[in-house]
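I am still getting used to backbone structure tokens and would like to learn alongside you. Label the sequence line and the structure token line clearly, so we can match residues to local backbone shapes. Would you write everything just below, so we can both look at the same thing?
***
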Amino acid sequence: MILTAMIAAVRQDLHDEDAANYRWTDAVLTRHINQAVARFSQALPLEDVATIATTPGSRDISIAALTTRVMVEAVEYKVGDFPPSYQRFSIWKDTLTIYSDEVPDGSNAKVYHGITHTMSTTSTIPTQYDNLVARGAAAFALLEWSAYTINRVNLGGEATARTYRQDADARLNRFIEELKRLGQQNRVRVRQLYTPYDTPVSQSIVLGP
């Protein structure tokens, strides 16, 4: 679903389809859609692979060019072996360090990673998840509107902000729970695709000497 269609779908979920009296502008809904797309990408990133030349005599590989990466799943070195030679690795900031049996000689490595989905005139979100993203965007929009209505005069009285917040929280919780389920399924599937060389090194914990 492209962005314009997604905006229409979110308006439908929010019952905000009166073009003469929109509560949310297209720009604001776009921001909430991007927020939902970013959250979706954390659970089910777009799969990508980058071929990067190693530096002779160094185990470090710069992955700074992978600017939209969400995670790194596997590193293959050397490229072309069969079965593929997946290596243990660690990541610190934009440097990926591989722990191959031999020190890299300048030949290529393949970095299998996930990147953030995009949605504009085209979309990388699989069509079966369009409704999920729309529901997430609607939840973020309601959350923003609940904050906006606090201490403002409105026809619904003082309970308006609380009602919006309750609706937003309920929708957001359902969105997050579904993302958790998808994320768990995706991790199992990806582990079947890329078998690590050995137990992967933690990407968040630095081991001492």
In short: The radius of gyration is 22 Å. Strands lie at 46-53, 60-62, 69-76, 89-92, 95-98, 108-115. Helices lie at 3-14, 26-43, 130-148, 159-193. Residues 3-43+118-191 form one domain.
